[in-house]
Design a protein that fits this description.
- It contains two helices and two strands, in the order E-E-H-H.
- By secondary structure, the chain is mainly alpha-helical.
Length: 68
């Protein structure tokens, strides 16, 4: 398990990146995305769009101590 530099598009090992991501948090995100997709399927009979996921992350992050 490790960490790598990424950028806002999610490119792994980005030469121009100044953001960090790693295996452990990627695994957590995969699990959480699976749960969110199941809930959208149950409630709306479809998967969320990327725009909805980003909006939802911004909504939830607004209540946490996260640097913009």
């Amino acid at each position: 398990m490790g960490w790598w530099i990424t950028n806002e598009t999610g490119t792994s090992f980005a030469a121009d990146g100044d953001l960090m991501w790693g295996d452990s948090v990627a695994d957590m995100m995969d699990e959480t995305l699976g749960q969110i997709m199941q809930e959208f399927q149950r409630s709306w009979n479809r998967n969320p769009s990327l725009r909805e996921l980003i909006a939802g992350l911004r909504f939830s992050a607004s209540t946490a101590d996260i640097t913009p």
